[in-house]
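Task: fold both queries, return C-alpha cells.
Query 1:
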Amino acid sequence: MSDLDVTGEFDVHEYREGFKLLKETRETMHLENRAGFACPACGKPFERLFVSEKRTNTFQSPPGPFCLARTPSQTLLFTH
C-alpha cells in the first residue's frame, strides 16, 4: 500500500496509474482508488477521493466513514 504525499500540493498525476477518473470539472476531481493507496489521515485504504480547489463545497452525506486532508490550495475528501 503506497502513501499519498499531501505535505505540499497534491498532484494526482504522480499517482495516475492507481486512480480511475470518475468525474472532473475545472476545480474538482472525483477519483476511484484502484491501487489500494492508504489514506494520509488514518492510514487505511480508501475507496474514493474527492479533490477540490474551491473555497466552499456542499456534499450529500458520504456513505460510511470519511477523512479530510488539506493542502495549501486543496481540500481532499477520502471515503472508506
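Query 1 returned. Query 2:
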Amino acid sequence: MKTEPVDILELLKHNTPSSCWIVLHSHVYDVTDFIHEHPGGADLILRHAGGDATEDYEQYHAPELVDQILPVTACLGRVDPAKIPKQKPQLDQGTDGTNRKEGSQVPPLNSLINLDDFEQVAEKNLPVNAWAYYSSAAEDEITKDENRHVFRKVYLRPRILRDVGDIDTSTSILGYRCSLPVFVCPAAMAKLAHPDGECAIAAAAGHEGLIQVVSTSSSMPIHSVMKARIREDQPVFFQLYVLKNLERTKAMIRLAEEAGMKALWVTVDSPVIGKRERDERVKAAIQITDQAGSVRKGQEVQGIARTMSSVITPRLSWDDLKWIREMTSLPLVIKGIQTVEDAILAYQHGVTGIVLSNHGGRSQDTTQPPLLTLLEIRKHAPFLIGGKMEIYLDGGIRRGRDVIKALALGATAVGLGRPFLYSLCGYGELGVRRMVSILRDEVVTNMALAGVRQIQEITPDLVNASKLQRDLLSGARL
C-alpha cells in the first residue's frame, strides 16, 4: 500500500464517473473501474467522488474489506482527511431528515420475552433506511404475512403420559452437529444493526451451538467472520449469489473454501430484485453534491435492496450447477425452491440439500409459503422426505412451535433471518444469544407438551395439517 502524499487539489479533480477517487481511512483509492460493480450501486460512491467516503463506508463495511475488493494498484497514497473540504450531505437520511430516529433507546435485554419483542425494539431504534431494508417485502407484502400465518393452519396433536423429563434438541445439518434444528439464514448487511455485524452473529452462534450461513452481501469480510468464531471447528456455510461478473463469483467460491467454510448455498429465487416499495421510498432524501457545492440532478439513491441487486446475474440456470461443482467439492445446497417440480429437479441434479424459501416474501408477492411447498412435496414426491437430500425451510418462523411443525412435516431444519438482524439492534452478540435462548426454551417447552424427547421423535402424526391439505387440494396446479 502506497504511503506517498497525494495533493488535495489533485484529489478534488477526480470527482466524475470517468475518473473517480475517494478517501478511505486516510488512503486515496482510484475506484473508477469498480464503481459500476459496487453491490450498493455507483451513486453511493459517486456522491463522495473527490472526497472522504470513510464515514459512509464504515456504516456498511469493515475497514479491511476495501483491501480485499480492490487491487493493490488502486491505492494511490495518503492524505490528511482534515484538509479535505466537507461534502454535503454525507449520510443517508430518513423521512425525518436524520440518520437515526430521535429519542431511540433499548429496554433491558431481560425484559424481552419473545422474538416479536426484538422486532419492536429494532423498529424503534434502527435508522430509517436500515429498518426499511430489513423489514420490507415485495409489493403488498402478502407473502411475507402469509409465511407466518400459514403455521396457524397446522395444529399440534400432543401425546400424554410420556416421560419428558429430559429433552434433547440437538440434531445435525449436512453432518455437522448443532444444538437446535435452526440455522442462521444468510441475511445481508448486518452492520446496519450493529457495528460488529455478522461477526457478532458468528460469536453468538458459536456460544449457542448454531450454524451460520454467511451472505454474499455480508457487511463483514469472510475472514473476519471466521475469526469471530469461538472455536476453530465451528461450522460456517457460505451463501452465493452468482454475479454478472463470473470471475468475481469464482473468486468468492475460492475465498470461501480457503477460509474454511463447510458448504455452499446457492440462492436461486432472485434473478431480478422484487419491488420492495417500503425500501424504495427511503431513496428520496439523497442527492449527489460535488466539491463545488453543485447538485447533480436525477441522482437519487435507490433503496438498499435495489442498489445491491444490480450485480446479480438473471441468467443462472440448472446448467450452471456443472461449473460450480467443477470448482468446489463443498456440499451444494440450492436456496429458493418454491415448487415440488423444482425440488424434484434439484434431487435429479444431485444437490446435497434444498431450502424451501420465497426469500422472506422479498422477491415475488403472492408466492406460496414454504410450508405449503413442503406439503406439496409430501403429497407428490414423498420419496424426497427423509432421503439423501436434506430439506430445509425458512420464512415466518417466530415460535418454537413453528419449528416443531416444520420438522413434523418433513423439514430437516429451519432458518431464521430477520430475527437475527433485529436482535443485534442495541445489543450486539448478547441480543442474538438472548433471542436464541428464548427460541430454544420455546422448542423445549413445546416438545415436552407434545410428548417428545428428541428431534427424531417429531413425526407427521404429531400434527394435523388438514387446513393446509385443503389449501393444497384447491390449488390451480391440481
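Both queries returned. Flag for query 2: The two ends are 63 Å apart (CA to CA).
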